[in-house]
Specification:
405 residues, 7 strands, Heat Shock Protein 90, elongated, Helix Hairpins, 3 domains
Length: 405
């Protein structure tokens, strides 16, 4: 354990010890005060009354002092009165001395017990903090290389157990995030390496060909342009994915129906070329978010529906309001998708049975999910029994139209 951690732990232990000691001291002082008041106010006074006469008619001094018998009759003599006053003064003096001794001895006892309580408080505080020190030592030993380690705290279900379980849950989420990050980096490196390798092969072939002509060079350059465009699209997708996962830099009020209409107008020639029937049910649906990212979400959903369709298939795009939320729904025909593979489509670089030869890198739906998460929207993806997907994004109720950025 580091020196700073040890000092911090000692400070907490000292604070707990002082708290225990102060509480004991205050409770002991209150108890001492109550006892002292009860003892001093217990009626030790001397009543100047007489007792009944003895058979001989004499009255003892003790009877007169303690007040046995009936009211005095006849009155006390001067001698008896003097003895009573002297006895009364002596009783008062003894009472005061007793109260003083009680107070002094109780104070000494309280001081001794305060020291003992401090020592016991130090031990108890150490016992209470021991599990925390154990968890701290274990957490400090966990790094990116052994993030799979867990505290595995055993004990009764209390606050410490809940804390340890919370830390274990956090470590589990970190492990999942790190694994996802490693896979993403490996896949991105592979995706970038493929076009670079192809570019190198095309250039090497052109350089080493002794019979190369202008036409062959032109053909090679055209191939290089295609590969370069694929790299640009990949890098753009990676940039959008990183931007959406970072969060929102600007917030504006946008209409999903307008964005959907703009995207569909841009993709109309492609839809006609593929022979796709496009059904649009666009009703006003305003949301608060980053206009560029929301438009990219709509474009990716439309592109996914068109890219993974069947000849003479169809695509349906719908926007509207359901309750307080605005929604965008894109449904399309296409090859059957196993239901157990649907969640996998939302991960980066997932193409199921396809390859990168079709110009797609498996980032479309992962970007959609990241943008939806950044806008606190709910994304649902369902495999249609007839083939294709039904995807719906529910945005939360529109916030105030404040713009930041």
């Amino acid at each position: 354990m580091s020196l700073t951690a040890r000092i911090s732990g000692i400070r907490v232990r000292l604070r707990l010890t002082l708290l225990y000691s102060v509480l004991f001291l205050l409770s002991g002082a209150v108890l001492l005060a109550i006892t002292y008041l009860l003892v001093t106010q217990s009626g030790w006074g001397v009543r100047m009354s007489t007792s009944s006469s003895s058979p001989s008619g004499d009255r003892s001094v003790s009877d007169v002092i303690v007040g046995h018998g009936v009211p005095e009759s006849p009155p006390l003599t001067e001698t008896e009165r003097g003895l009573v006053e002297a006895a009364q003064q002596q009783a008062v003096q003894q009472h005061e001395e007793f109260g003083h001794q009680l107070l002094v001895k109780s104070g000494i006892a309280l001081a001794i017990m305060s020291v003992l309580s401090a020592a016991l408080g130090w031990l108890v505080a150490g016992r209470v903090l021991r599990p925390l020190r154990t968890m701290t030592d274990s957490i400090q030993l966990i790094s990116a290389r052994n993030v799979q380690e867990r505290l595995a705290f055993t004990g009764p279900r209390d606050e410490l157990k809940d804390l340890a379980d919370t830390v274990d849950g956090l470590l589990g989420r970190l492990e999942t995030a790190l694994d996802s990050h490693r896979r993403f980096v490996a896949n991105a490196a592979h995706e970038l390496r493929t076009p670079l390798t192809l570019e190198h092969a095309l250039l090497e072939e052109a350089v080493l060909d002794p019979d190369a002509t202008v036409e062959s060079y032109r053909a090679r350059f055209e191939d290089l342009v295609v590969v370069s465009e694929q790299q640009a699209r990949l890098l753009e997708s990676l940039l959008v994915l990183a931007t959406s996962e970072r969060g929102l830099d600007r917030l504006e009020s946008v209409d999903l129906s307008e964005l959907a209409g703009s995207v569909l107008r841009a993709t109309r020639p492609r839809a006609c070329e593929q022979g796709l029937a496009v059904v649009v049910r666009a009703r006003p649906a305003r949301v608060t978010g980053d206009p560029a990212l929301v438009e990219r979400l709509v474009a990716n959903l439309v592109d996914n529906a068109m890219s993974h369709n069947v000849p003479d298939g169809w695509m349906e795009v719908e926007t509207g309001v359901a309750g307080a939320d605005s929604f965008l729904s894109v449904t399309n025909t296409g090859p059957p998708v196993p239901p157990e593979m649907v969640d996998r489509l939302l991960d980066p670089f997932q193409r199921l049975d396809r390859t990168a030869d079709d110009g797609h890198h498996g980032l479309g739906l992962s970007i959609v999910r990241s943008i939806a998460v950044a806008h606190s929207a709910d994304l649902s993806v369902r495999a249609r029994p007839e083939g294709g997907l039904a995807i719906r994004v529910d945005f939360p109720a529109e916030k105030s139209p404040a713009i930041s950025g």
